[in-house]
Specification:
By secondary structure, this protein is mostly helical. The protein is built from 27 helices and 8 strands. It folds into 4 domains: 96 residues, DNA polymerase, domain 1 (Orthogonal Bundle); 228 residues, Intergrase catalytic core (hpI Integrase, Chain A), CATH 1.10.443; 106 residues, Orthogonal Bundle (DNA polymerase, domain 1), CATH 1.10.150; 145 residues, hpI Integrase, Chain A (Orthogonal Bundle). The strands form 3 sheets. Strands 1-2-3 form a 3-stranded antiparallel beta sheet, with no helix packed on it. Strands 4-5-6 form a 3-stranded antiparallel beta sheet. The chain is flat, with a radius of gyration of 30 Å. It starts with a helix and ends in a 35-residue tail after the last helix.
Length: 679
């Protein structure tokens, strides 16, 4: 296995230059080598299971064991690719070997411990090093990598300077410095040895201090003061203090340089969330910020010239009972998608679609079945015709890669191709579990790297223009006008998905309680959301003219539940009137961005939108720079008030924390995000 690890090390050096990834992966591979002591091809699933038990028996944390499993998975994938052997199965089976991880509380220090620690730090270099972690949230590696030239002086002497920080993966960001840290920086430079090395923190040997050197210095002060502290605990403490000062999570995420806001979420472990209170406060601020009188007033309860929807007759002209279209028992037939495909394939495709139908929301079965069938037909037609695939066992990795290359030449988007790959893999897993031989290599086709598009939200000015157009075009108050107002505000103020909107039932509405029940949202998760007064008013105005229908759906058109394409076509028409491309999903993005920028808690927004992961919510919500300034000032004001109530221990600490913020926030100072080293 020695030679295999050396090859793996060279590969990692090419892929991850100037990063610690190679060191950790090689170390983990060597640990497994000492445990298994056999050639890589002879490693089995049982060996991996025994390795996991051995590591747990040594007292290692679940996160550490899972990290080593991830390394080994990468190692065996590399070896199979290097050998060009699609039959070499990876012995790591995640659903079998992965260890369930707990949710530890944040590892922060109390204020008293911080005061005791800094009271014992007398060296100006060390005081600045650890102050950057505690007051700016820098990682130990970022502190070690600082250069004298990274300092960006402040335009206003009363404000703090800025600092260019290099994080993991050579990603950079610019962070603010408090005036106190700026002063400490200048004091250290006045005493720093004059050397050619540009490293900010140098040792007596005139070399830049290493991460280990910084950690050793902190360990020295920890022994002197009796404070159990690490560099990362100082960073956690910075995050905890910002949370206690009520800084919104997205702002804190930017300050810490996290790529995923879920990483920042560990700093609010156990925090209570009141979605209704947060929503009402945010919507109140939005209404207060909107100029002019209220856009919509309640329409008369009995509109002139707008009769209710007529009741549909329950019998036809011959006296036979009419079956409502919504509950007609027509079976879903997708056999047309399998035309011209070989028999060995069509039976499995039909079984797979039937299997999936039981897992889809009833109202979306037809939509998902058509999309999934169309995708699988497109992929398999190409594989059969262009690669002459004659069975599941005959399908290889090169065949799938050839399909990807062909679609890329046809200018198919990376996101579309990744979705097609996921659909293909899901189908192949299905047939593999039912006894069909499938080459492990087909699952090793690399996903394409997708771009990170900006959130698709409307600006405040664009949203107001759209709202005004809808107000003007629905002023007559006809049945269709009221219908359009109802669905618009359910989308714009409730953040519903289009499918959730069309599936709403009369029993899901609680006008008196101003709330709405969303049943079987994405992932078949139910949720209850609050409604704004405007949304309730528009919905009640529509219910006056809704009338009766075959279905108990809330929104109906021509006696049937409203269809997604009707909502989308009308919304597009309103958008074209103001020169904008508007969709229901863009309104969902817009609501998230508006709410987060008036201070609504991001976890409350997550629950309002029905997201399983907080990172998904952050794709929707764009935090404006002015919001960062406001949140930071408010948080520091609260911290200042708290410190004024406590006796000062260290007179070198800043006396006016709110002045420690920076005046240049309107510039794009947070130019890049970084991944957090959780270890």
């Amino acid at each position: 296995m020695d030679e295999s690890i050396r090859k793996f090390e060279r590969y990692l050096g090419r892929r991850y230059p100037n990063r610690s990834t190679m060191k950790h992966y090689v170390s983990d591979s060597q640990i497994f080598q000492r445990f298994a002591n056999k050639p890589p091809r002879q490693v089995t699933k049982l060996d991996i299971a025994n390795f996991v038990e051995d590591q747990l028996g040594r007292g290692l944390a679940a996160t550490t064991v899972n990290r080593r499993l991830a390394c080994l998975h990468h190692f065996f994938e590399f070896l199979a690719d290097e050998a060009d052997d699609d039959t070499w199965a990876n012995p790591i089976i995640w659903r079998q070997h992965r260890v369930k991880e707990g949710k530890p509380l944040p590892r922060d220090l109390s204020d008293a411990e911080v005061e005791r620690l800094f009271a014992g730090i007398d060296h100006p270099r060390d005081r600045l090093m650890f102050g950057l972690m505690y007051w700016a949230g820098l990682r130990v590696g970022e502190v070690a990598a600082l250069r004298v030239s990274d300092f960006i002086p402040a335009g206003n002497p009363e404000k703090g300077a800025r600092l260019r920080v290099r994080g993991k993966g050579q990603k950079e960001r610019v962070v603010p410095l408090t005036p106190a840290l700026t002063q400490q920086w200048e004091e250290w430079l006045a005493q720093r040895l004059r050397v050619e090395n540009d490293a900010l923190f140098v040792t007596r040997r005139k070399k830049g201090i290493s991460e280990r050197g910084i950690q050793n210095r902190l360990a020295h002060y920890a022994r002197q003061t009796g404070v159990a502290v690490t560099c990362h605990r100082l960073r956690h403490t910075f995050g905890r203090r910002m949370v206690e000062a009520k800084m919104p999570l997205p702002t804190l995420s930017k300050l810490l340089g996290h790529e995923q806001v879920t990483t920042t979420q560990v700093y609010i472990a156990g925090a209570g969330v009141d979605v209704r209170a947060d929503y009402e406060a945010a919507m109140g601020r939005l209404e207060a910020e909107r100029p002019g009188p209220p856009l919509f007033l309640a329409l008369p309860p009995e509109p002139v010239g707008v009769p209710p929807s007529p009741k549909q007759s329950s019998v036809d002209e011959g006296g036979a009972t009419v079956i409502p279209p919504e509950v007609s028992a027509a079976s879903l037939d997708v056999s047309r998608f399998w035309a011209d495909l070989p028999a060995w394939l069509t039976e499995s495709l039909a079984d797979y679609i039937a299997y999936q139908q039981r897992r889809w929301k009833p109202s979306q079965v037809a939509h998902h079945a058509r999309n999934r069938s169309q995708t699988l037909r497109q992929v398999w037609c190409w594989l059969v015709e262009e690669r002459d695939v004659s069975g599941f066992a005959a399908l290889g990795r090169r065949d799938v890669e050839a399909y990807v290359d062909a679609r890329l030449r046809a200018d198919v988007a990376a996101s579309t191709l990744n979705r097609q790959l996921r659909d293909l893999w899901a189908f192949l897993r299905f047939v593999e579990e039912r006894g069909q031989p499938v080459s492990p290599g087909v699952f090793r086709v690399a996903r394409l790297k997708e771009g990170k598009p900006l959130p698709r939200f409307l600006t405040d000015e664009e949203y107001r223009r759209l709202e005004t157009v809808i107000r003007n075009k629905t002023a007559a108050g006809t049945r269709d006008d009221r219908l359009d107002r109802a669905w618009f505000y359910l989308l714009a103020h409730g953040g519903l998905r289009l499918g959730e909107l069309c599936d709403l039932r009369l029993g899901d509405v609680d006008s008196m309680g101003q709330r709405l029940v969303i049943r079987e949202g994405k992932g078949k998760r139910d949720r209850v959301i609050p409604l704004s007064e405007t949304a309730v008013t528009m919905m009640d105005d529509y219910l006056v003219v809704r009338g009766t229908a075959w279905t108990d759906h809330l929104l109906i058109f021509r006696q049937q539940a409203i269809k997604p394409n009707l909502v989308q076509s009308r919304l597009s028409r309103y958008g074209k009137a103001v020169g904008m491309a508007v969709s229901s999903h863009r309104l969902r993005h817009t609501l998230a961005t508006r709410l987060v920028n008036v201070g609504m808690d991001i976890v409350s927004i997550q629950r309002l939108l029905g997201h399983e992961k907080l990172a998904t919510t952050m794709i929707y919500a764009r935090v404006h720079d002015t919001t960062v300034e406001r949140d930071f000032r408010q948080a520091m004001t609260r911290l200042e008030a708290n410190q004024e109530r406590r006796p000062a221990v260290d007179q070198t600490e800043p006396t006016s924390l709110v002045e420690e913020f920076f005046s240049h926030i309107h510039e794009p100072v947070f130019v890049a995000t970084q991944a957090l080293n959780c270890v």
